[in-house]
Amino acid sequence: MLDLLNLNAVDAYTYDLAVIGAGSAGFSAAITAAEDGARVVLIGYGTIGGTCVNVGCVPSKAMIRAVEALHAAKGADRFDGVEATAKVTDWAALVAQKQALVDDLRAAKYVDVLPNYEGVTYIEGQASFANDGSLKVGDRIIRAPKVIIATGSAPHIPDIPGLDGVDWLDSTSALEQMHLPKSLMVMGGGYIGVEIAQIFARAGVEVTIVTRGGLLPEAEPEVSEALAKAFSEEGIKVLDGLSYDRFEKSGDGVTLHATHNGVAVRIEAEKLMLATGRVPNTSSLALDVAGIDTNARGGIVIDPEMRSTRDGVYATGDVTGTDQFVYMAAYGARLAAKNAMNGNTLSYDNSIMPAVVFSDPQVASVGLTEAQAQSAGYEVVTSVLGLEHVPRALAARDTRGLIKLVADKDSKKLLGAHIIAPEGADSIQTAAMALKMGMTYDDLGAMIFPYLTTVEGLKLAAQTFEKDVAKLSCCAG
Q: Which helix (DSSP H) or strand (DSSP E) does residue 304 occupy?
Protein backbone atom coordinates (compact mmCIF):
# COMPACT_ATOMS: atom_id res chain seq x y z
CA MET A 1 0.00 0.00 0.00
CA LEU A 2 2.86 2.39 0.76
CA ASP A 3 4.27 2.05 -2.77
CA LEU A 4 0.81 2.70 -4.19
CA LEU A 5 0.68 5.92 -2.23
CA ASN A 6 3.88 7.21 -3.82
CA LEU A 7 5.92 7.90 -0.69
CA ASN A 8 9.12 8.27 -2.70
CA ALA A 9 7.89 11.15 -4.83
CA VAL A 10 10.06 14.23 -5.22
CA ASP A 11 9.60 16.70 -2.36
CA ALA A 12 7.64 13.98 -0.55
CA TYR A 13 8.13 15.50 2.88
CA THR A 14 6.68 18.96 2.18
CA TYR A 15 2.92 19.34 1.99
CA ASP A 16 0.14 21.89 2.16
CA LEU A 17 -1.48 20.07 5.08
CA ALA A 18 -0.42 17.42 7.57
CA VAL A 19 -3.15 15.41 9.27
CA ILE A 20 -2.11 13.47 12.37
CA GLY A 21 -4.40 10.51 12.96
CA ALA A 22 -5.90 8.09 10.45
CA GLY A 23 -9.33 7.50 11.94
CA SER A 24 -12.66 8.89 10.84
CA ALA A 25 -11.71 12.49 11.64
CA GLY A 26 -8.31 12.23 9.99
CA PHE A 27 -9.75 10.72 6.82
CA SER A 28 -12.49 13.37 6.73
CA ALA A 29 -9.94 16.18 7.00
CA ALA A 30 -7.53 14.67 4.46
CA ILE A 31 -10.19 13.94 1.86
CA THR A 32 -11.84 17.35 2.27
CA ALA A 33 -8.53 19.13 1.74
CA ALA A 34 -7.49 16.88 -1.15
CA GLU A 35 -10.77 17.50 -2.94
CA ASP A 36 -9.95 21.20 -2.76
CA GLY A 37 -6.59 20.59 -4.42
CA ALA A 38 -4.28 20.42 -1.41
CA ARG A 39 -1.28 18.11 -1.10
CA VAL A 40 -1.91 16.22 2.13
CA VAL A 41 0.13 13.86 4.25
CA LEU A 42 -2.00 11.61 6.44
CA ILE A 43 -0.04 10.21 9.38
CA GLY A 44 -1.39 7.04 10.96
CA TYR A 45 -0.19 5.28 14.09
CA GLY A 46 -1.55 1.88 15.06
CA THR A 47 -4.35 0.25 13.12
CA ILE A 48 -5.70 2.39 10.29
CA GLY A 49 -9.33 3.41 10.71
CA GLY A 50 -9.27 4.59 14.30
CA THR A 51 -11.58 3.69 17.15
CA CYS A 52 -14.99 3.49 15.48
CA VAL A 53 -14.45 0.78 12.90
CA ASN A 54 -11.81 -1.19 14.80
CA VAL A 55 -12.77 -1.28 18.45
CA GLY A 56 -15.78 0.98 18.96
CA CYS A 57 -19.00 1.49 17.02
CA VAL A 58 -18.79 -1.38 14.53
CA PRO A 59 -17.77 -4.30 16.78
CA SER A 60 -19.98 -3.26 19.69
CA LYS A 61 -23.10 -2.75 17.56
CA ALA A 62 -22.52 -6.06 15.78
CA MET A 63 -22.42 -7.85 19.11
CA ILE A 64 -25.43 -5.91 20.44
CA ARG A 65 -27.46 -7.04 17.45
CA ALA A 66 -26.31 -10.64 17.89
CA VAL A 67 -27.46 -10.93 21.49
CA GLU A 68 -30.79 -9.24 20.69
CA ALA A 69 -31.87 -12.60 19.26
CA LEU A 70 -31.25 -14.22 22.63
CA HIS A 71 -33.31 -11.60 24.44
CA ALA A 72 -36.12 -11.67 21.88
CA ALA A 73 -36.50 -15.42 22.29
CA LYS A 74 -36.48 -15.14 26.06
CA GLY A 75 -39.24 -12.50 25.94
CA ALA A 76 -41.39 -14.21 23.31
CA ASP A 77 -43.80 -15.45 25.98
CA ARG A 78 -45.23 -11.97 26.33
CA PHE A 79 -47.32 -13.00 23.33
CA ASP A 80 -49.94 -15.63 24.11
CA GLY A 81 -49.34 -18.92 22.35
CA VAL A 82 -45.73 -18.18 21.42
CA GLU A 83 -42.65 -19.96 22.71
CA ALA A 84 -39.08 -19.54 21.49
CA THR A 85 -35.59 -20.45 22.61
CA ALA A 86 -32.12 -19.29 21.65
CA LYS A 87 -28.69 -19.89 23.11
CA VAL A 88 -25.02 -19.25 22.50
CA THR A 89 -23.54 -22.38 20.95
CA ASP A 90 -20.14 -20.99 19.93
CA TRP A 91 -19.11 -17.63 21.37
CA ALA A 92 -15.72 -17.79 19.66
CA ALA A 93 -17.43 -18.11 16.26
CA LEU A 94 -19.51 -15.01 16.99
CA VAL A 95 -16.41 -13.05 17.99
CA ALA A 96 -14.66 -14.20 14.80
CA GLN A 97 -17.63 -13.13 12.67
CA LYS A 98 -17.58 -9.73 14.34
CA GLN A 99 -13.87 -9.38 13.62
CA ALA A 100 -14.37 -10.35 9.98
CA LEU A 101 -16.87 -7.52 9.62
CA VAL A 102 -14.41 -5.10 11.21
CA ASP A 103 -11.65 -6.22 8.83
CA ASP A 104 -13.91 -5.90 5.80
CA LEU A 105 -15.11 -2.42 6.71
CA ARG A 106 -11.60 -1.24 7.56
CA ALA A 107 -10.50 -2.25 4.09
CA ALA A 108 -13.57 -0.90 2.27
CA LYS A 109 -13.86 2.42 4.09
CA TYR A 110 -10.23 3.24 4.84
CA VAL A 111 -7.44 1.23 3.19
CA ASP A 112 -9.14 0.94 -0.22
CA VAL A 113 -10.30 4.56 -0.17
CA LEU A 114 -6.84 6.15 -0.12
CA PRO A 115 -5.74 5.22 -3.67
CA ASN A 116 -8.68 7.25 -4.98
CA TYR A 117 -7.00 10.45 -3.80
CA GLU A 118 -3.72 11.23 -5.54
CA GLY A 119 -3.29 14.26 -3.34
CA VAL A 120 -3.11 12.20 -0.15
CA THR A 121 0.10 10.49 0.93
CA TYR A 122 -0.24 8.03 3.80
CA ILE A 123 2.65 7.25 6.14
CA GLU A 124 2.77 5.31 9.37
CA GLY A 125 4.52 6.37 12.53
CA GLN A 126 4.18 8.33 15.74
CA ALA A 127 4.24 12.08 15.11
CA SER A 128 5.62 14.73 17.44
CA PHE A 129 6.06 18.47 17.11
CA ALA A 130 9.27 20.44 16.98
CA ASN A 131 9.33 24.03 18.21
CA ASP A 132 9.37 25.32 14.62
CA GLY A 133 6.06 23.57 13.93
CA SER A 134 7.50 20.76 11.84
CA LEU A 135 6.66 17.15 12.61
CA LYS A 136 8.99 14.26 13.25
CA VAL A 137 7.68 10.85 12.18
CA GLY A 138 10.36 8.22 12.67
CA ASP A 139 13.35 9.47 10.69
CA ARG A 140 11.20 11.78 8.55
CA ILE A 141 10.74 15.50 9.03
CA ILE A 142 7.33 16.62 7.78
CA ARG A 143 6.79 20.28 6.96
CA ALA A 144 3.38 21.79 6.31
CA PRO A 145 2.04 25.28 6.96
CA LYS A 146 -1.20 23.78 8.23
CA VAL A 147 -1.67 20.84 10.61
CA ILE A 148 -4.84 19.12 11.81
CA ILE A 149 -4.57 16.91 14.89
CA ALA A 150 -7.08 14.04 14.99
CA THR A 151 -5.41 11.44 17.19
CA GLY A 152 -8.53 10.36 19.05
CA SER A 153 -8.70 9.01 22.58
CA ALA A 154 -7.90 5.96 24.68
CA PRO A 155 -9.58 4.30 27.68
CA HIS A 156 -9.07 6.09 30.97
CA ILE A 157 -7.42 4.00 33.69
CA PRO A 158 -8.62 5.10 37.16
CA ASP A 159 -6.18 5.51 40.02
CA ILE A 160 -7.51 2.90 42.43
CA PRO A 161 -5.22 1.03 44.83
CA GLY A 162 -4.64 -2.57 43.81
CA LEU A 163 -5.74 -2.14 40.21
CA ASP A 164 -2.23 -2.75 38.94
CA GLY A 165 -2.24 -6.12 40.69
CA VAL A 166 -5.33 -7.56 38.99
CA ASP A 167 -6.16 -8.46 35.41
CA TRP A 168 -8.70 -6.19 33.77
CA LEU A 169 -10.35 -5.65 30.42
CA ASP A 170 -11.26 -2.50 28.55
CA SER A 171 -13.99 -2.21 25.95
CA THR A 172 -11.61 -3.45 23.25
CA SER A 173 -10.31 -6.56 24.96
CA ALA A 174 -13.75 -7.39 26.38
CA LEU A 175 -15.13 -7.84 22.88
CA GLU A 176 -12.12 -9.97 21.94
CA GLN A 177 -12.73 -12.56 24.66
CA MET A 178 -13.02 -15.98 23.06
CA HIS A 179 -14.75 -17.49 26.09
CA LEU A 180 -17.60 -16.11 28.17
CA PRO A 181 -16.79 -15.61 31.86
CA LYS A 182 -19.25 -16.72 34.50
CA SER A 183 -19.39 -13.22 35.94
CA LEU A 184 -18.31 -9.74 34.91
CA MET A 185 -17.91 -6.55 36.92
CA VAL A 186 -18.25 -3.42 34.79
CA MET A 187 -16.82 -0.27 36.36
CA GLY A 188 -18.57 2.78 34.92
CA GLY A 189 -22.17 3.59 34.06
CA GLY A 190 -21.62 5.65 30.92
CA TYR A 191 -22.59 4.61 27.41
CA ILE A 192 -19.68 2.22 26.94
CA GLY A 193 -20.33 0.51 30.25
CA VAL A 194 -24.06 0.01 29.74
CA GLU A 195 -23.73 -1.25 26.16
CA ILE A 196 -21.11 -3.85 26.89
CA ALA A 197 -22.69 -4.87 30.20
CA GLN A 198 -25.89 -5.72 28.37
CA ILE A 199 -24.07 -7.68 25.66
CA PHE A 200 -22.54 -10.01 28.21
CA ALA A 201 -25.66 -10.23 30.36
CA ARG A 202 -27.75 -11.33 27.39
CA ALA A 203 -25.12 -13.90 26.53
CA GLY A 204 -25.65 -15.47 29.94
CA VAL A 205 -22.97 -13.80 32.05
CA GLU A 206 -23.79 -12.59 35.57
CA VAL A 207 -23.12 -8.86 35.26
CA THR A 208 -22.71 -6.22 37.96
CA ILE A 209 -22.24 -2.54 37.09
CA VAL A 210 -20.42 -0.53 39.76
CA THR A 211 -20.50 3.23 39.46
CA ARG A 212 -20.18 6.39 41.47
CA GLY A 213 -22.91 8.30 39.68
CA GLY A 214 -25.52 5.83 38.38
CA LEU A 215 -26.36 4.88 34.82
CA LEU A 216 -25.90 7.61 32.20
CA PRO A 217 -25.41 10.33 34.82
CA GLU A 218 -25.62 13.13 32.23
CA ALA A 219 -29.02 11.98 30.94
CA GLU A 220 -32.38 13.17 32.19
CA PRO A 221 -33.13 11.57 35.62
CA GLU A 222 -36.30 9.95 34.26
CA VAL A 223 -34.27 8.32 31.49
CA SER A 224 -31.55 7.02 33.82
CA GLU A 225 -34.18 5.60 36.16
CA ALA A 226 -36.03 3.88 33.31
CA LEU A 227 -32.81 2.29 32.06
CA ALA A 228 -31.88 1.11 35.55
CA LYS A 229 -35.33 -0.48 35.88
CA ALA A 230 -34.97 -2.24 32.53
CA PHE A 231 -31.54 -3.53 33.47
CA SER A 232 -32.82 -4.79 36.81
CA GLU A 233 -35.60 -6.68 35.05
CA GLU A 234 -32.94 -8.39 32.91
CA GLY A 235 -30.96 -9.40 35.96
CA ILE A 236 -28.17 -6.85 35.59
CA LYS A 237 -27.12 -5.59 39.03
CA VAL A 238 -26.44 -1.87 39.29
CA LEU A 239 -24.56 -0.70 42.38
CA ASP A 240 -24.27 3.07 42.32
CA GLY A 241 -23.19 5.75 44.76
CA LEU A 242 -20.01 3.81 45.53
CA SER A 243 -16.68 5.05 46.81
CA TYR A 244 -13.90 2.79 45.59
CA ASP A 245 -11.35 1.67 48.19
CA ARG A 246 -9.17 -0.99 46.58
CA PHE A 247 -9.00 -4.01 44.30
CA GLU A 248 -7.51 -7.35 45.13
CA LYS A 249 -7.00 -10.60 43.29
CA SER A 250 -9.17 -13.39 44.68
CA GLY A 251 -8.56 -16.87 43.33
CA ASP A 252 -9.24 -16.76 39.61
CA GLY A 253 -11.19 -13.52 39.88
CA VAL A 254 -11.13 -10.02 41.27
CA THR A 255 -12.67 -8.33 44.31
CA LEU A 256 -13.55 -4.66 44.66
CA HIS A 257 -13.65 -3.25 48.18
CA ALA A 258 -15.91 -0.21 48.23
CA THR A 259 -18.07 1.90 50.51
CA HIS A 260 -21.78 2.53 50.06
CA ASN A 261 -23.50 5.00 52.37
CA GLY A 262 -20.74 4.51 54.88
CA VAL A 263 -21.00 0.73 54.80
CA ALA A 264 -18.16 -1.45 53.51
CA VAL A 265 -19.11 -3.73 50.61
CA ARG A 266 -17.30 -6.40 48.58
CA ILE A 267 -18.07 -7.06 44.92
CA GLU A 268 -16.58 -10.15 43.33
CA ALA A 269 -16.43 -11.30 39.71
CA GLU A 270 -14.41 -13.54 37.47
CA LYS A 271 -13.58 -10.65 35.13
CA LEU A 272 -13.32 -6.87 35.54
CA MET A 273 -13.96 -4.42 32.71
CA LEU A 274 -13.07 -0.75 33.04
CA ALA A 275 -15.44 1.70 31.35
CA THR A 276 -14.43 4.82 33.22
CA GLY A 277 -14.32 7.20 30.29
CA ARG A 278 -11.73 8.08 27.68
CA VAL A 279 -8.80 10.50 27.59
CA PRO A 280 -7.36 12.35 24.57
CA ASN A 281 -4.31 10.88 22.84
CA THR A 282 -1.96 13.83 23.23
CA SER A 283 0.90 12.66 25.44
CA SER A 284 3.26 11.69 22.58
CA LEU A 285 2.72 14.79 20.43
CA ALA A 286 5.09 17.16 22.31
CA LEU A 287 2.39 19.81 22.26
CA ASP A 288 4.16 21.89 24.89
CA VAL A 289 7.17 22.21 22.60
CA ALA A 290 4.94 23.71 19.92
CA GLY A 291 3.04 25.96 22.32
CA ILE A 292 -0.26 24.13 21.94
CA ASP A 293 -2.39 24.37 25.07
CA THR A 294 -4.34 21.49 26.58
CA ASN A 295 -7.00 21.36 29.28
CA ALA A 296 -6.86 19.49 32.60
CA ARG A 297 -7.69 16.15 30.92
CA GLY A 298 -5.17 16.57 28.14
CA GLY A 299 -7.63 17.70 25.47
CA ILE A 300 -6.38 20.24 22.94
CA VAL A 301 -7.91 23.65 23.54
CA ILE A 302 -9.61 24.97 20.40
CA ASP A 303 -11.81 27.90 19.44
CA PRO A 304 -15.12 27.54 17.54
CA GLU A 305 -13.18 27.54 14.25
CA MET A 306 -11.20 24.46 15.37
CA ARG A 307 -7.96 26.47 15.84
CA SER A 308 -5.51 25.56 18.59
CA THR A 309 -3.36 28.09 20.42
CA ARG A 310 -0.63 27.75 17.77
CA ASP A 311 -1.20 29.52 14.48
CA GLY A 312 -1.89 27.06 11.67
CA VAL A 313 -2.63 24.08 13.93
CA TYR A 314 -6.18 22.78 14.25
CA ALA A 315 -7.71 19.88 16.17
CA THR A 316 -10.88 17.84 15.94
CA GLY A 317 -12.62 14.85 17.46
CA ASP A 318 -11.89 13.00 20.69
CA VAL A 319 -8.47 14.62 21.00
CA THR A 320 -10.24 17.84 22.02
CA GLY A 321 -12.00 16.04 24.87
CA THR A 322 -15.53 16.96 23.76
CA ASP A 323 -18.39 15.38 21.81
CA GLN A 324 -16.91 11.89 21.57
CA PHE A 325 -19.04 10.74 18.65
CA VAL A 326 -17.59 9.69 15.32
CA TYR A 327 -19.98 11.84 13.31
CA MET A 328 -19.04 14.93 15.31
CA ALA A 329 -15.35 14.19 14.81
CA ALA A 330 -15.84 13.91 11.04
CA TYR A 331 -17.98 17.07 11.01
CA GLY A 332 -15.34 19.03 12.92
CA ALA A 333 -12.64 17.69 10.62
CA ARG A 334 -14.40 19.03 7.54
CA LEU A 335 -14.68 22.45 9.15
CA ALA A 336 -11.03 22.41 10.17
CA ALA A 337 -9.91 21.47 6.66
CA LYS A 338 -12.04 24.17 5.03
CA ASN A 339 -10.85 26.78 7.52
CA ALA A 340 -7.22 25.75 7.28
CA MET A 341 -6.93 25.47 3.50
CA ASN A 342 -9.47 27.97 2.18
CA GLY A 343 -9.39 30.67 4.83
CA ASN A 344 -13.00 30.00 5.79
CA THR A 345 -14.37 30.96 9.21
CA LEU A 346 -16.80 28.10 9.72
CA SER A 347 -17.80 27.57 13.35
CA TYR A 348 -18.43 24.26 15.10
CA ASP A 349 -22.05 24.01 16.25
CA ASN A 350 -23.11 21.17 18.54
CA SER A 351 -26.33 22.78 19.77
CA ILE A 352 -28.45 20.28 17.84
CA MET A 353 -26.28 17.20 18.17
CA PRO A 354 -28.23 13.94 18.38
CA ALA A 355 -26.70 11.35 20.69
CA VAL A 356 -27.58 7.67 20.99
CA VAL A 357 -26.77 4.92 23.47
CA PHE A 358 -27.37 1.49 21.95
CA SER A 359 -28.66 -0.14 25.07
CA ASP A 360 -32.05 -1.82 25.02
CA PRO A 361 -34.20 0.17 25.43
CA GLN A 362 -32.18 2.63 23.37
CA VAL A 363 -31.45 6.07 24.77
CA ALA A 364 -31.44 9.05 22.42
CA SER A 365 -31.33 12.78 23.03
CA VAL A 366 -30.91 16.12 21.31
CA GLY A 367 -30.82 19.67 22.61
CA LEU A 368 -31.04 20.76 26.23
CA THR A 369 -31.98 18.77 29.28
CA GLU A 370 -34.42 20.36 31.70
CA ALA A 371 -31.58 21.34 34.03
CA GLN A 372 -29.51 22.80 31.20
CA ALA A 373 -32.46 24.84 29.95
CA GLN A 374 -33.06 26.23 33.42
CA SER A 375 -29.38 27.09 33.77
CA ALA A 376 -29.58 28.91 30.43
CA GLY A 377 -32.31 31.15 31.86
CA TYR A 378 -35.40 29.64 30.29
CA GLU A 379 -38.68 29.28 32.15
CA VAL A 380 -39.12 25.63 31.35
CA VAL A 381 -42.11 23.37 30.79
CA THR A 382 -41.82 19.66 30.13
CA SER A 383 -43.91 16.78 28.87
CA VAL A 384 -43.09 13.25 29.99
CA LEU A 385 -44.97 10.50 28.16
CA GLY A 386 -44.65 6.87 29.20
CA LEU A 387 -44.56 4.33 26.38
CA GLU A 388 -47.73 2.75 27.72
CA HIS A 389 -49.45 5.62 25.89
CA VAL A 390 -47.77 4.89 22.53
CA PRO A 391 -49.73 2.43 20.35
CA ARG A 392 -46.57 1.00 18.79
CA ALA A 393 -45.28 -0.03 22.21
CA LEU A 394 -48.62 -1.51 23.18
CA ALA A 395 -48.79 -3.60 20.01
CA ALA A 396 -45.23 -4.81 20.65
CA ARG A 397 -46.17 -5.52 24.27
CA ASP A 398 -43.02 -3.68 25.28
CA THR A 399 -43.68 -0.42 27.11
CA ARG A 400 -40.23 0.03 28.63
CA GLY A 401 -39.33 3.69 28.47
CA LEU A 402 -40.63 7.20 27.96
CA ILE A 403 -40.32 10.38 25.91
CA LYS A 404 -39.50 13.71 27.52
CA LEU A 405 -39.74 17.03 25.72
CA VAL A 406 -38.36 20.29 27.08
CA ALA A 407 -39.74 23.66 25.94
CA ASP A 408 -39.74 27.36 26.73
CA LYS A 409 -42.93 28.21 28.60
CA ASP A 410 -43.69 31.56 26.94
CA SER A 411 -42.82 30.83 23.30
CA LYS A 412 -43.57 27.08 23.40
CA LYS A 413 -40.34 26.62 21.43
CA LEU A 414 -38.85 23.15 21.75
CA LEU A 415 -35.47 23.10 23.50
CA GLY A 416 -34.73 19.41 23.91
CA ALA A 417 -35.98 15.88 23.34
CA HIS A 418 -35.04 12.76 25.29
CA ILE A 419 -36.18 9.26 24.40
CA ILE A 420 -35.74 5.87 25.98
CA ALA A 421 -37.51 3.22 23.94
CA PRO A 422 -36.75 -0.10 22.24
CA GLU A 423 -36.60 1.72 18.89
CA GLY A 424 -35.77 5.15 20.24
CA ALA A 425 -32.65 5.80 18.18
CA ASP A 426 -34.58 5.93 14.94
CA SER A 427 -36.83 8.68 16.28
CA ILE A 428 -34.30 11.21 17.49
CA GLN A 429 -33.49 12.74 14.10
CA THR A 430 -37.11 13.85 13.75
CA ALA A 431 -36.72 15.71 17.04
CA ALA A 432 -33.40 17.15 15.86
CA MET A 433 -35.06 18.52 12.73
CA ALA A 434 -37.82 20.03 14.84
CA LEU A 435 -35.28 21.84 17.00
CA LYS A 436 -33.28 22.91 13.94
CA MET A 437 -36.37 24.50 12.42
CA GLY A 438 -37.27 26.27 15.65
CA MET A 439 -40.59 24.47 16.00
CA THR A 440 -42.94 24.84 18.94
CA TYR A 441 -44.59 21.90 20.59
CA ASP A 442 -47.83 23.01 18.93
CA ASP A 443 -46.08 22.74 15.54
CA LEU A 444 -44.80 19.26 16.31
CA GLY A 445 -48.13 18.10 17.68
CA ALA A 446 -49.91 19.27 14.52
CA MET A 447 -47.67 17.32 12.14
CA ILE A 448 -48.80 14.12 10.46
CA PHE A 449 -47.01 11.04 11.81
CA PRO A 450 -47.42 7.44 10.62
CA TYR A 451 -49.53 5.38 12.98
CA LEU A 452 -48.04 2.53 14.97
CA THR A 453 -44.51 3.87 14.91
CA THR A 454 -42.31 4.78 17.83
CA VAL A 455 -41.70 8.22 16.36
CA GLU A 456 -45.42 8.94 16.69
CA GLY A 457 -44.65 9.20 20.39
CA LEU A 458 -43.06 12.58 19.69
CA LYS A 459 -46.39 13.88 18.41
CA LEU A 460 -48.22 12.52 21.45
CA ALA A 461 -45.65 13.97 23.84
CA ALA A 462 -45.96 17.34 22.12
CA GLN A 463 -49.75 17.26 22.40
CA THR A 464 -49.66 16.37 26.08
CA PHE A 465 -47.97 19.62 27.06
CA GLU A 466 -51.52 20.98 27.21
CA LYS A 467 -53.79 17.94 26.75
CA ASP A 468 -54.57 14.82 28.73
CA VAL A 469 -53.21 11.86 26.76
CA ALA A 470 -56.13 9.75 27.99
CA LYS A 471 -58.49 12.00 26.03
CA LEU A 472 -56.63 11.57 22.72
CA SER A 473 -58.10 9.14 20.19
CA CYS A 474 -55.89 7.07 17.87
CA CYS A 475 -54.81 9.18 14.85
CA ALA A 476 -57.10 12.05 15.92
CA GLY A 477 -55.95 15.54 16.68
A: none
